[in-house]
Amino acid sequence: MEIRTLNDIYAVTCTLDRPAALKVKREGRWVDISVTEFCDSVRSFATGLRLLGVKPGDRVAILSENRPEWAIADFGILCNAAVTVPIYPTLLGWQIEYILNDSGAVAVICSTQEQLQKINDIRGHTPHLHNVIVCDGPGPLTFQQVIESGRSNADNRRFDELRAQPRPNDLATIVYTSGTTGNPKGAMLTHGNIASNVASLHDVMPIGQGLIAMSILPLSHIFERMADYFYFSKGVTIAYAENVNKVGDNLQEIRPHAFAAVPRLFEKMRERIMNQVGEKPAIEQKIFRWALKIATERLPYRVENKPMPPLLKVKSTLADKLVFRKILQRLGGRVMYVFSGGAPLSPELAAFFIGAGVEILEGYGLTETSPVISANTPSHRKVGTVGKVIKDIQVRIAADGEILARGPNIMKGYFNNPEATAQAIDAEGWFHTGDIGELDKEGYLKITDRKKDIIINAYGKNIAPQPLEALLKSSPYIGTPVLIGDRRKFIVTLIIPNFEKLERDAAAMGIRFDSREELVKDDRVKAIYQTEIDRFNRNLDRQEKIRRFALLPRDFTIEADEITPSLKVKRKVIDKKYKDIIDQLYAADFVDEEREVKRA
To answer: For the packed helices 68-78 and 35-51, what is the interaxial angle rounded to 10 degrees?
Structure first.
């Protein structure tokens, strides 16, 4: 069956036989959800939503962690010819309120009582919201009640009519992503946008019916959501990881054949491996270092699918037996492919795992591109690149080096934001990614820089620094803050104090200092700024919270090439110039990071 809409994927799902459609851990054991049960639940939930008044074109939000209800609700919404609005469950009430109001959502599906409480707190400020449905525990309406209502009032003919109604150009979802202003932008993705991305990957990703994939990244993120649609369309069973801290255990319990992840997962794994090796006897450390050398030597042969020389093949087999088999066991022991995206994967990290035998395939894309633009595949890959441009998509490099993309995967635009749409998509239909890159002579795309100021942390979370910096500037003690966190696991900030205020208050507190360098090192001064940071952090999302800061003793200047004539901070210059200070901010968190690694 040709896949032209997301509802076609649902139809395909219901025809492909496999042991289970989904797997979920409940009360300590993994439970299968059969294909029949899944498809019937989607049908009943869609009917239940229709009975609640959801009409074609209405927006319905999902505020939930990954779980079977997420997929059931999503397909149920789409099969009503309505529009899904995913919301990260880590968001705070005021952030959720903005998305619900901007999208005009008429209903929201909440996972837990914690998420329900967020909705209850803002309910008076969301006039479009008519129905609140909760998966776990009591609520105005439970997920099971909606299903039972749809089952009791089944109208298969009407369901089939609505399921077949959407055309490829019809809106399927609005995915909100951080922008450079205070409010997120809602990328409007059509059925055809995402379905074309799924279809383009069919021929190049050899994953088939009956295999198991683990869903780890949030389904609110278009990367994981598209991956799950791909799994559904290929007859792959999807197992939902319990949470980020349980991923390591879940991988060994489920033993998946594939999963999508962000580079941070691999960083944590490598750190844990290296820490454990460091505690081993000297002879075992020596064997490990020898195996890493063999991994480096065999990397080109693995990447290019070429046979190894006889001696290297013997050494490779021994390295696998002594070292690398244990690394593969951490992933369950039968992983065929791992899809990496959401943030750049360093060549060193890719080489470590690919050399060890883990088939990591890195791709590139954005929310606005549904999301994949390019991808390394089993038959065509090159370490240090994000692969070749996938079928039906065009890429060209602008005069300033920016990557432009055009094709069936490009969003319709930003919801309620024609100005931002016009800035992102030009008159010829080229989407301006904001990333700087190059295409090599073999057609592989390499990302070399970022034109945008958006921070993409190690977990793939988009964070707009300007609104947070504007918030920090509201403090009387803060002159110029610069947020740091690109490809990093948390946010830190460099702060130029408002020295007029600080010096006055410091004198009143009896703090003696002969220079500003001496002033910013005083523990009492640092305590002032920690109090300010703590105050702001209370109203920030977990991944936006500022974990550490450094006080700088002088202003940024035009002469030092740190700011432009219009007084805008040159972030790349700051990153490079203050690299030692920034590195110390992250190194200072070594103890906390070790705890994080042990939990992983």
So the answer is: 60
